[in-house]
Amino acid sequence: MPKNEFGPKNEFGPTDGLGSASTAGRAPRRRAAANGRKPSRDVLAFVKRYWIAIILVILVIVFILTNTNSADLTLGWVTVSSPLWLTLTVTVLVGFVVGWFVGRRQQD
Fold first, then answer.
1. What is the mean pLDDT of residues 73-86?
2. For the whole model, what pTM was predicted?
3. Please, what's the b/e burial string for 33-68 (b: 16 or more CB within 10 A of its CB; e: otherwise)?
4. Residues 15, 22: contact at Cβ < 8 Å?
């Protein structure tokens, strides 16, 4: 078998010396196909990793949906009357955005 800088060469191209064809020049495979995992296992891994966050989101949604009465909000000298579910939703979204920015800042 002829040799090159990558090891022995076969009819499929250069090998890494272990008998497998080199992947140089090929497009990367999709993640699920490359590691042999099924998409359902990826979902299960996601749930196992983020189960506390998932439970908290479910509790927040239930809390927001059960508080449908109206509430008066005072911001400085302005008083606004709005549904409580809308106020809670806006508060949760603002908290999420602030947490996202703080998390990004710590990663950089």
1. 90
2. 0.49
3. eeeeeeeeeeeeeeeeeeeeeeeeeeebeeebeeee
4. yes
